[in-house]
Design brief:
2 copies of one chain form a homodimer. Chain A is 39% helix and 16% strand. Chain A has 442 residues and is an alpha/beta fold. Chain A folds into 2 domains: 150 residues, Alpha-Beta Complex (Aspartate Aminotransferase, domain 1); 257 residues, Aspartate Aminotransferase, domain 2 (3-Layer(aba) Sandwich). In chain A, helix 3 packs parallel to helix 9, helix 4 crosses helix 8 and helix 11 crosses helix 12. Chains A and B meet through helix 1, helix 2, helix 3, strand 4 and helix 4 of A and helix 1, helix 2, helix 3, strand 4 and helix 4 of B. Chains A, B: Keywords: Pyridoxal phosphate.
Chain lengths: 442, 442
């Protein structure tokens, strides 16, 4: 694991900045303080967004190949109109009857396998995972949680405690167990599922021997913070079955892969041929409006809901629902996931072509429009690979293209454009990546 | 403590409902399930809101004397215009420079005592309290949390575990200690602070003897879920000092009293003459938009922020900031808290007049526009007082006025109108309450 937990960030004094930016940063530091880290060595400053583009105060355009929250693009007029229209009519809470809440809940559930027929709304992906853990612990009677070794699942106390990605300063729960992934461990694809299952079984054994028991396997099915380890499809199925056998629930964290990111499916878990017990939603659900959800099987959802008095003031309010409803309508009507899959193939072949020409590109992995591109030649030391990834990201930023890094060594480029990305944007991105590779690796 | 955790709710089969509502409820139950409880014996169904009023599908108006989220009234045009305008320009996240975030953070901090000079944004009050607990535990090195005996602080795993209000089904943390309040215990005001301090000192002693230590005193300074125990001002000061002496932090949960609810002050803790270490904000901050914050002293905020990698995707996004900025502008420009204080005096004297005429009103307490009105004659059994409160709330609902209940026995009317309430609304409310009392108590 890298020692710097957010390598791609601004460090005071490291870069010469224009007065406008350095003054704003000074004011920002004084009132927002150390929690608020800025991306890039030279932070970006945006005042306008539209579709795939963000604009700085001088009108310079930056191509966004990083943000998955505005999945339909920045400032989508139809989504914003739905939000504004609803805000002008009523923002009801869920303790009152309001048909839109029920209509949208039914529409959302229809996108899931039949077994998943209940939904509870939240405001953020962290709230979704936090609630899913509460439900899993309540329904199973156990405490243990199994996650991947570099997982990130949220910012609440309970989710941060099962997020090894956050590093040493954030204490892990005594009841969390981390499992290695076959990909980073160098296990061939044919043995990947067996390797993963063996890791899971060993974690279950340990949790049981300590009387903790297993409440849940909590996984992002594209393992985005571990470095985008998407293959082979089916990889997690036997491990998930082992967890259910042991009395635990399977929670699919769809904050990253959900809502068509993987192209071929609406939900990432479908790629692995499993039906989880609980599914957690967040980021792209409202194209930027704070809304999330837990979707799940009736049994654990009702067991929790009937006994624990759960309510969430803002969650499910009609404005958020109307916004999310517009997002789902557009995703389905305009076949956004299908188009994203097609465009991801264009991006994939462009990246492979670059990889063949540059020894600096070690490997490329993707599921739909979520790409991980490993930087640094085979056999290069971890620190050099990492420095190279950071150099490429910052060269591209200076060139007007936004991406960042991921993975245990943060040497994997994280490429995750809004789903409305077109071929022309892919070509601009590929040209910029090539320029950056030449600049960085020579 | 009452056995039914949400007495004022719909129970299937208890009330005859029109087909339109019963069908909507059946669909709602099928997809949202048991977590989603409806208020009132006969649920309300709203399709439009404006100022102090909510409207059902038949155009019947209901006077809202319950909702503090739309503090400036339902569907405030100026707030909504600020939200829509910003959504059309940019919804930036906090990893990019954006001046509005810094401008608003500075304006918000100016409303606090000088010692409180840092802010971190969240999306909900639960997220605010969850983060404040993380900061307090990190900064103190201790785990223990002291709360009032019927406190509610949120819906995340960590906040629910310090919320005895949620009842037996939600397990309390082994490190939480509950303290009794002087008011419900019948302690005279002159001894109230000493009583509270003694309770706190005893909790600290117990936490220290078990090696848990005290991380925080977490309190809502108007004790709204305990039954609105607001007096005497200063009540909590010596207890808070004892916590700080013992190495713990004082967290003021301002989700209920904050943003001028108490009229005389912007923040509830000011009424008690204390400066907390951390302050948590939520509900009214965005007049319905999901936004919250933790405001605090530099030392614990920086200690946490510099080491723990905290980030929250939606929190501090420019649309939420622009919305909250409009709310703060209107609160200050139109002197909403000052007007709320004046109107609260009109409401208070009306309630006192009613109390003199009806033995069913036992006591009235308020801080600004947050009122608790105890139902049932002195000496009446708890169950009878509680039934009476429930009958009054539902009679008023049928009469077109919205309130609910609070307190350990849920026999206190919770009266908490939007802050823009006018004298004419108070008169309508008082007339309805009087009709309900006559109907219920005879």
């Amino acid at each position: 694991m890298s020692t710097d937990l957010m390598p791609n960030r601004y460090r005071p004094g490291e870069s010469d900045l224009p007065k406008r930016e350095s003054e704003l940063i000074a004011r920002r530091e004084a009132v927002l303080g150390a929690s608020y880290r800025l991306q890039y060595r030279r932070p970006v400053h945006f005042v306008r967004g539209e579709g795939m583009w963000l604009y700085d105060p001088d009108g310079r355009a930056y191509l966004d190949f990083y943000n998955n929250v505005p999945c339909l693009g920045h400032c989508h007029p139809e989504v914003n109109a739905a939000m504004a229209e609803q805000a002008g009519r009523i923002s009801a809470n869920t303790r009152y009857l309001e048909p839109k809440l029920v209509d949208y809940a039914e529409r959302l559930i229809e996108t899931f396998p039949n077994e998943l027929d209940r939904v509870v709304f939240t405001c953020t992906g962290s709230e979704s995972n936090d609630l899913a853990l509460r439900i899993a612990r309540f329904a199973s009677g156990n405490e243990g949680v199994i996650v991947s070794s570099y997982a990130y699942h949220g910012t609440s106390a309970a989710t941060a405690a099962v997020s090894p990605n956050l590093g040493d300063a954030v204490k892990l729960s005594p009841s969390v167990r981390m499992v290695s992934l076959p990909g980073p461990a160098g296990v061939p694809e044919a043995q990947a599922a067996d390797f993963f299952e063996a890791q899971i079984r060993s974690a279950i054994l340990d949790l049981n021997r300590r009387g903790i028991g297993v409440a849940a396997l909590l996984i992002d099915s594209i393992f985005s913070s571990d470095g985008v380890w998407v293959d082979p499809p089916g990889l997690i199925a036997s491990g998930a079955a082992a967890v259910r056998e042991a009395g635990g629930l399977v929670i699919a964290d769809e904050v990253q892969p959900g809502f068509g990111r993987t192209g071929a499916h609406m939900w990432g878990f479908e790629r692995h041929g499993i039906v989880p017990d609980l599914v957690t939603l967040g980021k792209p659900m409202g194209n930027g409006f704070p809304i999330g959800a837990v979707v799940g099987r009736k049994a654990p959802m009702e067991q929790f809901g009937a006994t624990s008095r759960y309510s969430n003031t803002f969650a499910g309010n009609t404005v958020g629902i109307a916004t999310a409803d517009a997002v789902l309508t557009i995703l389905q009507r305009d076949q956004i996931p299908q188009k994203a899959l097609a465009i991801s193939q264009h991006l994939r072949s462009g990246l492979e072509k670059i990889a063949n020409q540059h020894s600096g590109v070690r490997a490329t992995r993707n599921a739909g429009l979520f790409f991980g591109v490993d930087m640094g030649p085979e056999g290069a030391p971890a620190a050099r690979r990492r420095a190279m990834a950071l150099d490429v990201v910052n060269a591209m930023r200076d060139d007007g293209v936004l991406i960042s890094t991921t993975g245990a060594n943060e040497d994997t480029l994280k490429v995750r454009p809004p789903l409305v990305c077109q071929a022309e944007h892919v070509d601009l991105f590929l040209a910029s990546l090539e320029r950056a590779l030449i600049k960085v690796a020579g």
